[in-house]
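Q: Give me the 3D complex with adenosine-5'-diphosphate.
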Amino acid sequence: MSETINTTGVTCIWGGRNSGKTTLAKRLIMPQVKGQRIVVIDPLANPDEGHATAQSFAQSLYAGERLLTLCNGNASEAIPAIYAAWAHSSKDNPIYIICDEAPAYMKTDTPHLNRIMFQGRHRAFGMAILGQKPTAVSANIRSQAELTFWMRLTDFNDVDTASKMIGPRAKELAGFSAGQYISH
Ligand SMILES: Nc1ncnc2c1ncn2[C@@H]1O[C@H](COP(=O)(O)OP(=O)(O)O)[C@@H](O)[C@H]1O
Ligand SMILES: [Mg+2]
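A: Here is the predicted complex, encoded as structure tokens.
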């Protein structure tokens, strides 16, 4: 685990359930995020530990809360929360966002997501996108990743998507154990 993450760029982690995505984000990405506030979108997070709406998420964000989770996978809440984090991020207050279970809310591009993805990186804002099905996330979004981790994947369409990026090695993904990956 020696890959260097660009903490003001986009990193993707694709892998089936229990392939080790969330663990990899915690062990490999989070320790490299220094001096940036880390916020998390995780539809599977315990509702007691997170915000259910973008509005309450954003209020805590503006108030400076350090540990911030949105535990709602509806695009109508998750996308505004991501946008709020991006809009609030700056050189003086840099933010890194971990978008877990992203296919739940990133199937298609939205004006907000496009703005984040394509309007420069001036905001000292970084993003990790994690999901079980890369093919369920817009190719426009996926292609913004500077670094992608491929973990255990068995679905034919997902392996096919992986093979376009990493070539014939994608066939090995189906036999990976938890935590194993190919980075690209
Ligand atoms: N590098 C690793 N080595 C061994 N076990 C791992 C590793 N990474 C994850 N696991 C185990 O695999 C299971 C699923 O991990 P998790 O990160 O929650 O997967 P995902 O987010 O892809 O569903 C957990 O029980 C975790 O402890
Ligand atoms: Mg997970």
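A quick observation: Strands lie at 10-14, 37-41, 68-70, 95-99, 125-131, 147-150, 182-183.
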